[in-house]
Structure formats: structure tokens, C-alpha cells
Amino acid sequence: MAPELVIAEVRGRRDIKRFISLPDKIYSGDSHWVPRLDLEIKHLLGDKNPFWKHAEKKLFLALRNGNAVGRAAAVIDHNFVDFHNEKTGFFGFFESVEDRAVSSALLDACCLELRSRGMRNILGPMNPSSNDQLGILVEGFNASPRIMMPYNPRYYPDLIESSGFEKAKDLLAVNMEVGAGPAARLEKFVKKIRRKHPGLRSRPIDKKRFAEEVKLIRGIYNSAWEKNWGFVPWTDEEIDDLAAQMKGLVIPGLIQIGFEGDTPAGFLLALPDYNEVIKRTGRRMFPLGWAKFLYHRNRIKNLRLMAMGVVREYRNKGIGPIMYYNSLRAALEKGFRECEFSWILEDNRETLKVAAMMGGEVYKRYRVYKKDLT
Q: Domains of the chain (ranges plus CATH)?
């Protein structure tokens, strides 16, 4: 008799524990995988995450003979629905053994849940939104993911596509050396910009005024990204929550705020690749993981440039390269070796052009999928 497969809604602490720990089984023996910290994913899924004030979720486990073999979440972000004026829900936190029966049952459960709530389309993976981890890796499996970027087995695209999903958008990751060569090339370009636009400048974030700086960045972000694919504005509570989590991780020189005169015009956010440390600590920070984290954090050699945006009226003047240059100089002073730009929309030619000018090459590709629910 074939093993029984059941899709069960997550209820109670035991199910949450199985939901969080399932990747340990999926990625056993994969040297490139980096787990998400338990405390991070518990906060992400928990009621204290301000995202759930305007969103709702249903978590599913795939059980075969009582053993967890897959998981997924159906998510409705009402802010996304309202902002884009479209009935689109998400699937996220997708993990599955290499079995189409498991993945299809999970994704069907997400589609059924969203359809029952009036959604007409589904996008994913969103973990849980477009302001968090999104997409699955489809190219570039020979390197570990950088901080806050997804990773998955090679068979995931087949599982998702076999359930009737198709490509919605590809997101790219570009890797470049942090060295004197890229800095010198960029310096020449920046000198020309400053001669043409002497009012353009950027400065590091001021951690002594962190709350004020965060509000400034939120305003820039919500203005600069407004027309981007998948964009949803941050709420005050969401940006404050994210800032509280990241405050102890930032290096001021790597985060630049751009100005024309005294008017905020853009910002750039780069972080050390703390995944290098998490690979050593594992997903549990206590009791010994925190000590390992503190010991190894100053030995990180790579970066992730997570976000760079310029307010629309200041684009094409050169504030972006100025922020890149000042952040790159800070990275050189700290001894970093490589920097990943991620993610970049596949059709964002301007950012890809700047990355190429700095010696960057596309080395990873992520895909967000869509499906019609009508």
C-alpha cells in the first residue's frame, strides 16, 4: 500500500517546530546551504511581526506516514492588494522533498486557500512578502547564498513549474571584487559627476541618530521604489522593526545617504555577509551560537549590497555612483574582498550597467512564479 500523504494546517507549537526544522532534512549534506536562524523565522512568522497587522497567513505541512516531507504558506498582504489594485496572494516558505506529489499537494492547498479568500492570482515564493526573501534559485548553485538571500535544491524549479506555475520575473545577483581597480574606475567617473553637479554628495549613516536616520531612509525608499515591480510601501512599524533587528549588524560607512544640497536624494545599504558566520553557528544562537557569532563576525570577508535607490527627480545626475564609491572606499578600508549586488530586476539596465562598470558579473538568477487562480 502506498504511503499516505496528508496536507495539514500548522497548529500549535509542535507543528511550528516541525515547520521550522524541516529544512534540516531537505538540505542535509548540502555544503552551500545556510539555515535561517530560529529566532529570525519565529519572529517573521509570529504575531509580533508588524507585517501581520495588514496581512494574514495559513501554514501547511505535508506529512507522509506522519513524517514532515514538505511545507508551504499561503499569504495575503492586504497592503499589496490595495496598492496594486489586484487580487493577488502569495505562496512562500516552500520546501519539499524531490516528489511532485508532495509539492503539487502543497501548492494546490495554497491556491485553494487563496482562491477561497477571493484572490485571482498567486505569486511566489514570497517569504512572506516582496520586502523579504523572494524567489527561488534557478542558476548559480555552486556558491552559498549571501545574507537574507534564498537558496534551494536544483529540483525546485521543476516542482513548481510542474504545478502549472510560470515565470513572473527574474531577479539577478551580481558579484564583484572589492579592490583598488573598481575603486579607481569609479573615482574617475565620480569626479566628472561632481564637476557637473557640485551639489551632489553622500555621507555614512549616523548610528548615534539611528531612529532619525531610519525615518529618513524610509521616506527615500517609499519614494524611490514606488514604480518598481512588486513594490509595497513600508509602514512605520515595519521599518522600525527591521531597523531594530539590523542596528547591531550595520557598519556606518557601508550605508550611504545621498543628497543634493541638503535634500535627501537616495540611499545605499550594504551589510557584511553574516551567512559566513551562521554557517558556523547553525540556526540556534543559544547557548553557544552567540559566542561563536561574536568571535567570527569580524572575520567576514564578503558583503551584500542589499538596496540602492534614488528619488525619481534626482535620477540620471550621478548620485548613485557617488554612493557606490563612498561605500566601496569604506569596504576597502575594512578589508572586504567581494560584494554581491542583489537582488537586481532583470530589466534594470541602469543598475546592471553600473555593476558591470565596476567589474561585476551576473552569477546567480532567482525566479518568482505566477499562476492564474480563476
A: 5-170 (3.40.630.30), 179-336 (3.40.630.30)
Work out the percent of the chain whose per-residue pLDDT is above 90. 75
Question: Is the model's pLDDT at 91 over the cut of 50?
Answer: yes
User: Cβ distance 146 to 275 under 8 Å?
Assistant: yes
